[in-house]
Design brief:
mainly alpha
């Protein structure tokens, strides 16, 4: 086996594992959405029928919302599902589009890397401080670690799109 074939096989395996990770995060986002809906409905029903809200439901829904949004970012980026206004972009010459696209992708990578690092730092601060939710007293640090990891994965998805232009990473 020559070195080129070996590198190609490793690259394929890494890309496949990366796609699996992005899809798994999307699955977590789906579960989070369902939990938020079910929790909200249950809380409303308890308020209407029993005149008592479910204690801590606000804490749980806030955590689920943060995790859901963070876990949905890599998938949305992978399928190129973000809103794009290309009116001016399409009027640029080919070289201009290439420069603008590359610059935007580099800015996106930098942005998500900085956001991810900031989330990890904030999570570490919350862990040292022992910060918890108001009602259920659940630890909060791990939510920021999840958000940081998802930001880093999103940065890698953008890098993948930059290295493989014109190809979507995952078909929706």
């Amino acid at each position: 086996m020559d070195m080129h074939a070996g590198l190609k096989r490793v690259s394929f395996a890494v890309t496949r594992a990366f796609r699996l990770l992005v899809r798994a995060l999307a699955g977590v986002a789906c579960v989070g959405t369902i939990l938020m809906m079910a929790g909200t409905v249950a809380d409303i029903l308890m308020r209407r029928l029993a005149r008592r809200p479910i204690p801590g439901m606000v804490d749980l829904i806030q955590i689920a919302a943060a995790v859901t949004i963070a876990c949905a970012m890599p998938y949305t980026t992978a399928v190129k599902g973000h809103v794009a206004v290309e009116f001016l972009f399409l009027r640029l010459p080919r070289l201009g589009r290439l420069v603008v696209d590359t610059g935007a992708r580099l800015c996106g990578i930098a942005l998500f890397a900085v956001l991810g690092t900031g989330c990890f730092r904030r999570g570490a601060q919350l862990m040292r401080a022992g910060e918890v939710t108001l009602t259920l007293e659940l630890p909060l640090f791990w939510v920021f670690h999840v958000m940081g990891a998802c930001c880093m994965v999103t940065a890698l998805v953008i890098l993948h799109h930059m290295v493989h232009p014109g190809r979507e990473m995952i078909k929706p």
